[in-house]
Specification:
3-stranded parallel beta sheet; alpha/beta; globular; 8% strand; uronate isomerase, domain 2, chain A; TIM Barrel; 48% helix; homotrimer; 2 domains
Chain lengths: 475, 475, 475
Amino acid sequence: MNGTSELSSARFFDPEPVQRRLAQQLYDSVANLPIVSPHGHVDPNLFADETARFGSPAELLIIPDHYVFRMLYSQGIPLESLGVPRLDGGPVEQDQRKIWQIFADHFYLFRGTPTGVWLAHELSIVFDCQLPLNSATAQEIYTHLENCLAAPEFQPRRLFERFNIEVLCTTDAAWDRLEAHQTIRASGWQGNIRPTFRPDGVVNLDAPGWKANLDKLNQASGIEISSLARLIEALEIQRAHFKSMGATATDHAAVVPLTQMLSPMEAEAIFQRALLGELSGEDIQRFSGHMLMEMARMSVEDGLVMQIHAGSLRNHNSIIFERFGLDKGADIPIATQFSRNLQPLLERFGNDPRLRLILFTLDETTYARELAPLAGHYPAVLLGPPWWFHDSLNGMRRYFDQVIETAGLYNTAGFNDDTRAFPSIPARHDVWRRASANWLAGQVLQGIIQEADAAEMIVDLAAGLARRAYRLPSK
Amino acid sequence: MNGTSELSSARFFDPEPVQRRLAQQLYDSVANLPIVSPHGHVDPNLFADETARFGSPAELLIIPDHYVFRMLYSQGIPLESLGVPRLDGGPVEQDQRKIWQIFADHFYLFRGTPTGVWLAHELSIVFDCQLPLNSATAQEIYTHLENCLAAPEFQPRRLFERFNIEVLCTTDAAWDRLEAHQTIRASGWQGNIRPTFRPDGVVNLDAPGWKANLDKLNQASGIEISSLARLIEALEIQRAHFKSMGATATDHAAVVPLTQMLSPMEAEAIFQRALLGELSGEDIQRFSGHMLMEMARMSVEDGLVMQIHAGSLRNHNSIIFERFGLDKGADIPIATQFSRNLQPLLERFGNDPRLRLILFTLDETTYARELAPLAGHYPAVLLGPPWWFHDSLNGMRRYFDQVIETAGLYNTAGFNDDTRAFPSIPARHDVWRRASANWLAGQVLQGIIQEADAAEMIVDLAAGLARRAYRLPSK
Amino acid sequence: MNGTSELSSARFFDPEPVQRRLAQQLYDSVANLPIVSPHGHVDPNLFADETARFGSPAELLIIPDHYVFRMLYSQGIPLESLGVPRLDGGPVEQDQRKIWQIFADHFYLFRGTPTGVWLAHELSIVFDCQLPLNSATAQEIYTHLENCLAAPEFQPRRLFERFNIEVLCTTDAAWDRLEAHQTIRASGWQGNIRPTFRPDGVVNLDAPGWKANLDKLNQASGIEISSLARLIEALEIQRAHFKSMGATATDHAAVVPLTQMLSPMEAEAIFQRALLGELSGEDIQRFSGHMLMEMARMSVEDGLVMQIHAGSLRNHNSIIFERFGLDKGADIPIATQFSRNLQPLLERFGNDPRLRLILFTLDETTYARELAPLAGHYPAVLLGPPWWFHDSLNGMRRYFDQVIETAGLYNTAGFNDDTRAFPSIPARHDVWRRASANWLAGQVLQGIIQEADAAEMIVDLAAGLARRAYRLPSK
């Protein structure tokens, strides 16, 4: 048999029988806890409309998921043949079954990958399909999924309930009016969905569409953004709006996590050059470093938890970027340094208990070298879970291995699924819970952690740490 | 007992009995497959002469092997006492048994090292010598090896056949006339030995003997290399010659894998300065970055697979370099970055399925951070196996651990032995096959990979991936 | 039960029964060997006075230990409430039982950390206290410890003897007159305590109190330090003094391990600028790079083993530094490169068997990439054990994993406890011996190392390598 069916109930645990047994026991104690999802990219519109549907199996599982199509592309399969829309509206494959067949024909490429693991979980558990996915079974599975997706119990709100999601935080541009969130709240539906404030599109001066973003922020906030002072005012207004809609956090992307306070005059001058389209030299980096300081200051004041996701060189492949746009699997990490870059921010705000700063990295060398020591000293700092390429079984093992000894468990932020693929959420949390249980079992059997302590820690790992880190109310 | 005899048939497998059993089963299925050796440094002259011999045991196993003598040197043993020839022809130890005795006296230094593992395999399996190597057994083992090497079945061609080598690719300077390769072909012997085109000595302007190399290329190609355009012409002629002799690949060393297209005027100007011996500032790096672009362009055109081996700071120890020359164990790796450095080349050629670019690193931090994401996106990129210091059991484990989740197995290039030590080839491939089997067994037992899939993957790992990566015909 | 009691006799060994058994057997063979402690920061005054005492449990285990209070601080507990003295003499908690209670209330923070592991060992084995430490047991344990510390068998010299310490090397400023060491020697007590020469405070021109340090060196050496030449003379005098008092080593901290010989004129000019308080640009780094060359030259001449500890960015948090001073848990590592930085020193002295240079890193990426290749080539270089944040079970596993294959065991320097927490010394060596035994057991069971060899290697790891590396006489 060829494929990914037959999910073992002991999957991801160490083969050694005693460790396996203890891991299973720890896992079982949290397997059914509600899901806390404090950071991700699910579209809130899915839940705004009671009757929303997910579309075809290909529209659900392939076309929007850059984890999936980048792997196919890496083996020479054109994105057009997978139905990925072109920016110029040029022709791409429309036949959903054909797209699905290509995917199934190449599903072997995902052997040993987290995407393979998640998809196996989704097919088997979310869609109750026990066939292995391959060329021969592709169409039968497609039909099965299509039938599922047509059923009312596969509407987004129903899956949200079935997945037992306690809270789901979305990521929303600073200029977003949060209409979907308002609709959800107004609908009377009990799903707990919260926005997250992400200002990258206006504070990173090289963001695609920066000027247009500024106009949108202008309109959303009612502030005419003619100066940096007005930009800051507009951001503060929008933060308050987000907070009133349930937001507990902000999110910031930085290629390099530089922080530094500029003189008001210099900061304003850069902003004016940006308005005139006359940026020079290091303007962009200096400005974003300054704005991270401003954002930390605002977080101290309004209590929104600050997240920094650093080190992704976006849109590495300009051919793909120009034809298909952002988020097409062509973002490549770079070496990142935090110790010096964050020093100005941490010296100024890192001792203040009102600030909570959660750091994410794509450069695992920083775990033990920089991030764990920072989180293990500064009251403000927590270390986010393994991110993106490292949101995987090995990534989690390396994270536990390199972080906990120095930072301790309680300077970490639990788990984020960070996904735009809604039906993969249970799979991702399941991987984390299993990896956590297996790690704890190993610690107990090596006499490092007491079994009774491990029983508490697995509950923290499954949900408690994330709740606390993001200042989310317990249910 | 002190030494390395008693090769266990389950060596290198996890101690856990169930994993060990499955690893053994996977390994057994490929243990006898032919060896595909697509990249290495064996001297083709060994096979050009039907009657060639390997020399003394010390000449075979110590004097030419910098993996061996660097370790002895690190403990204060002069290279002269090991018979390593001096450039000035000064006196070095000539007594082969004395050299061997020093080696045996210090063989404990290799405990836990790949060199120790390979030598144990060679002694036990290639030479059928089951004594452990130490001070007491040194001379008896020497006699045994001497007797072996005198026997006809230890002639290079006979070992090639006994090793079941399907194909062996050598590495040859761009100006090589491939006379040894021609002799092999003309001899009617069926051994499949192919050259690889390596132009470093002329495209790296600081290569030792650059001017002399250029003259040799001039003579080999028949092109008077008075300009960059003529250099490129000469390289193209030689590539065609290599290809006609069976080459399927090129190889490029770069301290820093910078790529960038210069203007024709600038590139030519640098080349002219090099001819005049008037290089300045960044000329060398800019020129090699430009030539990597040219080489990629040629690979797109002629289909030769392009390899880049990056990040070795050669000849770190000038005392050793001046006395003994290149490749004396004094090459020290440095931190390497690929994401930005390769962007110009990948943007231009990385989407072209005609290009195949295999990347090698000595900086393992780039596996998960840069190389796996690049290989998991660009159609042209494959990731080469663990290289040099990392061609080891732990190196392989770290490679599987850090690469496969993001790149998938099918964006890797299988195994290279990369050796100049011909009798170590079976040992090196055996380590890889065992490490692969053990890794797959762990994946299966953790429920990540299906057992039936693993049975296919081990065959790919043992030979299939390398064949495909290097565009080598299946037998 | 909640805490860290119940030390398993098989702690830190792999759960797999066969490996566990072999690890136990290897460990048992060295568990009672004397402790060789060639590098650390224990105060020699503890042993100068026959009647010295350790103070309260909080004064012993919390207030001086930045490993402990940084973790509490990271969770928002003010250092004042832990009794850490303020530089300005401002009020801090004086109630030792209150401090202890806070510690116990938060002892769960240390789950899975080396500090947790060491404290568990200290309580259970050094103080024979089998209660788990938590809020409820805090005061009872405090009383128990207080009683212990009042007993004569807990005087420092008695614990030194009970710990079976063969030799303990302290770290002493270049200007130290070594009076405590002299008192120890004069007392007739047999404890073998040796100083180590540390000149950072005068050779790093930005060292806090540099000018005052220079004055002290002036007084200690009797040399008026008006020029670099006189500084070097003074250092040489003090080195001779240290050597006469039993020192076998020097120690050097470097943020960046740059080495380079300056012209005498430039070096002198920088020194004169330092005297005038007129340092500019790269003066500090260039000068320290030059002084490392001078120190290596002196080591060649006087045979003192040279240690370099690189890559710690000291006093990252200026609020903490200004209020509490140095060594308050706010030192954060940075990426470090050795290959290029050490080249000038190694080219000049690295082939000289009179030099022994032991390298320490906080950047584990350099283990396999740079340090193991350097140690595996240069006769002068040994690689120090996992340092500081990496002096932990995982840190040791990663070290063995990444270092031994390339450097071999015999280019490493055994173990250092590097601690100022005297009662943690047995715990730290126990962790190392157990980690070593477990690593060797794994190597044996995987057929990489012969069992008889492992039996020798565990003895080297436990004590022999450290003795040899630091040129300490065997007892």
